[in-house]
């Protein structure tokens, strides 16, 4: 039987467009004076009226139906369009409700296959959206003993938000927005003088760093606020029917449901700031989660930044076994040398450019180059050593584990039966030092996960043992060649 979207979409559209008209009209009226008020009001009426009329046409001529085999959506007006998804190909069902939706009791339901195929039903009554979500993914009705909550939000986790790379970006964005608004009223220059005046008669070389510290402080507050908005009321559940469900959000609520039979592993992500604070994030590695048009990190996140022990516990519950205690195989010292050379090269090139320009143009650039060398070269060396210490790989039961990275250290636990191929790469420099990079190919997550700069012989044995039979033809050829040479 065909069904329609919720009629309250017309009220949602009217309120949304009215708010957009006010936000756009205020700067115009403020800049042009009362003369522009009549034109702004007329434009607002046309915008709201046209938008509601267009939404009425969409609501009146859109129908959807859910059969045991397919989910179908049809739009019949001047043109006839039809979208259809086979139910066995549905991988994720996301339910989102922004503050306006929540006020009217509706929600948006997005059904995806993990590729470009996607159907969005917006809006539905909240109860209808929940019922359809359960119907689309809960294909098995037998509950298991493991059903129930796997993790809930601890408000103390908010302390990890300011140590992310988001904080400085938000601080600079806040200053940019402040200057943009001031520029609307022709007060951009006056605002800068007022901000610098906060520090009295201090010279610019002191005032500007203090202004950056102020921006960073605003970024810290913004990062904490963003964390609260995104992850308040967070809850991770294993539901009857073999699905994982993540619910979160303060003003805009979000719910993501994923079939467990699509899970091929997890990724323990530790950005540098979070790692120094003892925190980590858990992302899922699953088939059908890679959408070329929507690469949002939070869509695949099972656990936000939380204490590392909590992250490991959640990863173990999702995987069904603990993998963090596996002894990872360290990589050869030649891998450390490669990281040191690349890091020092990356830091040294800008230094050499500044020094060269300084000799040619001005001594100021010589001073800047020297200062950059004093700071950048030691930092590059420390990060390179940390990147080497982070390297490792191993096996834990049904999973293979690989770890790498420094600014973003990632430990991936991948189901061994989910690996469909291996790619072995050796550059000229790697071959000279007996190193190779082994990449496990899978249909889940990013599609490929690498063991970087491992010992070539040991890495080949590890890859062959991790997925028996996959590399057998190549190892047999290698053995025959060695025997012939002997």
Automatic annotation (TrEMBL):
<feature type="transmembrane region" description="Helical">
    <location>
        <begin position="160"/>
        <end position="182"/>
    </location>
</feature>
<keyword id="KW-1133">Transmembrane helix</keyword>
<dbReference type="InterPro" id="IPR005182">
    <property type="entry name" value="YdbS-like_PH"/>
</dbReference>
<keyword id="KW-0472">Membrane</keyword>
<dbReference type="Pfam" id="PF03703">
    <property type="entry name" value="bPH_2"/>
</dbReference>
<dbReference type="InterPro" id="IPR014529">
    <property type="entry name" value="UCP026631"/>
</dbReference>
<feature type="transmembrane region" description="Helical">
    <location>
        <begin position="202"/>
        <end position="228"/>
    </location>
</feature>
<feature type="domain" description="YdbS-like PH">
    <location>
        <begin position="59"/>
        <end position="134"/>
    </location>
</feature>
<feature type="transmembrane region" description="Helical">
    <location>
        <begin position="35"/>
        <end position="57"/>
    </location>
</feature>
<protein>
    <submittedName>
        <fullName>PH domain-containing protein</fullName>
    </submittedName>
</protein>
<feature type="transmembrane region" description="Helical">
    <location>
        <begin position="366"/>
        <end position="385"/>
    </location>
</feature>
<keyword id="KW-0812">Transmembrane</keyword>
<dbReference type="InterPro" id="IPR006311">
    <property type="entry name" value="TAT_signal"/>
</dbReference>
<feature type="domain" description="YdbS-like PH">
    <location>
        <begin position="397"/>
        <end position="462"/>
    </location>
</feature>
<feature type="transmembrane region" description="Helical">
    <location>
        <begin position="342"/>
        <end position="360"/>
    </location>
</feature>
